[in-house]
Design goal:
The protein has 204 residues and is of the alpha+beta class. It is built from 3 helices and 14 strands. The protein has helices at residues 2-11, 83-110, 180-192; strands spanning 13-17, 24-29, 32-35, 38-41, 47-55, 62-70, 75-80, 115-117, 120-123, 126-133, 136-144, 148-153, 156-161, 168-173. The protein has a 4-stranded antiparallel sheet with strand order 1-2-3-4, covered by helices on one side. It has a 4-stranded antiparallel sheet with strand order 8-9-10-11, with no helix packed on it. A hairpin with a 2-residue loop joins strand 10 and strand 11 (136-144). The protein is globular, with a radius of gyration of 19 Å. The chain starts with a helix and ends in a 12-residue tail after the last helix.
Length: 204
């Protein structure tokens, strides 16, 4: 019971944003996300993403912080220029939903499922990268974790072969690719446990 109360305290969040008469509200509770009074149950939320959208124009680019959650059918977006608010919201997204999505992905990988993140398909023991070209059909290449290195480059989780560290194989944008942050946490855990050959073997 104490654990449940602690989690409720971690995710508790209420905010309103936008300009009247288009103002919207979001409330996060253990039951789910209340979007403008409508409940989206926790179990129905299957995707998250957040990042910084740099808009060009003038001498300095404008930073717009974007945080998105969604179900298989609908997507809900909050945009703000307040960095503190954005970071607070992203933290709540992760604690309320992200941890569960990570756990579900690990269980799915263990049972043979594959997960698509843009041009990267994640399997338990590696990734398949889809290379696209305007002049030829898409080509796929498989790479086990032991052959890869990864890290964050310009707001994306990027993969490269150890033999060619300066040549990016593929990247997953945190702003545009659903659940890229979930994959990033998994890759961080794998990086700390180099002896592990399967993502599903990681302890979370």
């Amino acid at each position: 019971m104490e654990k449940k109360r602690s989690w409720q305290h971690e995710i508790d969040f209420r905010c309103s944003f936008g300009i009247w008469p288009f103002k919207k509200t979001l409330e996060i509770t253990p039951k789910g996300f209340y979007w403008c009074g409508e409940l989206i149950p926790m179990k129905d939320i299957t995707r998250l993403r957040w990042g910084v959208d740099l808009r060009r124009g003038g001498i300095f680019p404008k930073r717009v912080y974007v945080a998105v959650f969604g179900t298989p059918k609908n997507e809900y977006t909050i945009k703000t220029r307040q960095k503190d608010f954005y970071e607070h919201l992203a933290d709540r997204y992760w604690k309320a939903v992200g941890r569960r999505l990570l756990s579900e992905m690990m269980d799915g990988l263990a049972s043979g499922k594959k997960y698509r993140f843009g041009d990267v398909t994640v399997e338990d023991e590696g990734i398949t990268v889809t290379a696209r070209s305007a002049f030829s059909s898409a080509k796929e290449s498989y790479h086990p974790w032991s052959e890869l290195i990864w890290g964050i480059v310009n707001g994306s989780l990027c993969f490269a072969r150890k033999e060619e560290p300066n040549k990016i194989l593929a990247g997953c944008s945190f702003l545009w690719v659903d659940n890229a942050h979930v994959l990033n946490v998994a890759m961080g855990l794998l990086q700390k446990n180099e002896h592990v050959k399967k993502l599903s073997m990681l302890k979370i």
